Every structure is written in C-alpha cells, then in structure tokens.
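Title: Comparing notes on inverse folding

I've been comparing how different people in this forum approach sequence design from structure. To keep things fair, I'm posting one structure and asking everyone to reply with a full sequence. Here's the target:
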C-alpha cells in the first residue's frame, strides 16, 4: 500500500502562509545547508521549473512518484505560465472549476478526492503520493494522510492559512524523526498512529 504524505512548510504557530496563502516569508530560510537537504532528500518536491535553473532536473525521485495538489497551489504555477509544474511526477489537481486540463500531463480530479487517493494508494509498487497543499485539500484528506513531513520555519505569523481547513477532530500521529538546521528550521516526520 502506497502512502499519502502531507509535506508542508509552516510557521512556528502552524500557518502555511499569510491569510491569502502566500508563503514567500519562508524563502529567506532556504539557505545553502537547507537547500542541500531538500535536494538530497526530497528532490521531487521541488517543481520542475525550479529544478532546471539549479541543474538538478535529472535527480531521481526518492519518496514520491505522484503529486496531488489543490487548485490554489496549481494556480501559482499557471500564473507563471507553467501548466505542468511537477513534470517529473504523475500530477493530479483537485478542482471543481477547471473543466479541462490545460496540460495533458495534469489530470483534473473534480469528484470524490478521498476515493481517488484511496485508488492511488492501492496501486502496486511505486513510490508514495505527495500532498502539495493547500489547507482545504489537506482538510478533505485528513483521514487519508499516512505521514506528515513538516518543515517548520522560525517565524510567527500570528494569523494566516492553517495546515488543515477542517472541523475539529483528533488524528493522532507518532513522531519518527526531527532534524534541525543552523538557520532555525526544523523538519519533523510523523507517521499516523495505528
């Protein structure tokens, strides 16, 4: 069974961006040490158009072969003229408003997203599934998330877009590892508690 991993950047107080979802405040913390970690451990989470300028477009996927993202996350790429932001992965975008995909490499999911994720998780072999934001999609998939990888940046935003836009419910996870960086960033990995 493949895993769905919510791999996300957050502030100390648990926001993935400002109230509009803008996460550019985190960018100054991607220094040489942290970028080397991202490149070595999670190269597939870097968008294709971001990998090319660094000459790392040929790096093999280590953890994921599929990405599922919400409409707002996909819109960030579309605003820059990029219709296939994760060309090195199978790409799914959850949207009720996009009727036809602007790129043949991107499949639009407009129905039951949890059912689609269960279908993807049931596939034989392969790597895992990368949940690439945002809060609404993570809220819809809370019960399907098997693993959390939380990159916590040393900032307090005070308010903003939460990690999960959902009603109150308890979901218990077990801490598997913590890695710290000189710039104050923490990367924590959690597995869903059985």
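Reply #1:
Here's my take.
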């Amino acid at each position: 069974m493949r895993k769905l991993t919510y791999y996300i950047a957050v502030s100390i107080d648990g926001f993935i961006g400002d109230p509009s979802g803008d996460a550019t405040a985190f960018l100054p913390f991607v220094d040489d040490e942290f970028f080397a970690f991202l490149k070595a451990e999670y190269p597939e989470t870097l968008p294709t158009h971001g990998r090319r300028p660094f000459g790392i477009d040929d790096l093999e996927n280590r953890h994921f072969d599929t990405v599922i993202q919400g409409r707002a996350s996909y819109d960030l790429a579309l605003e820059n003229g990029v219709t296939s932001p994760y060309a090195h992965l199978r790409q799914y975008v959850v949207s009720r408003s996009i009727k036809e995909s602007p790129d043949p490499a991107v499949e639009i999911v407009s129905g039951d997203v949890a059912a689609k994720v269960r279908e993807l998780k049931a596939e034989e072999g392969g790597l895992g599934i990368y949940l690439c934001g945002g809060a609404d999609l993570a809220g819809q998939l809370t019960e399907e998330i098997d693993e959390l990888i939380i990159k916590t940046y040393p900032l307090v935003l005070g308010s903003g877009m939460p990690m999960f836009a959902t009603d109150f419910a308890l979901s218990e996870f077990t801490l598997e590892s913590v890695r710290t960086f000189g710039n104050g960033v923490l990367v924590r990995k959690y597995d869903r508690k059985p």
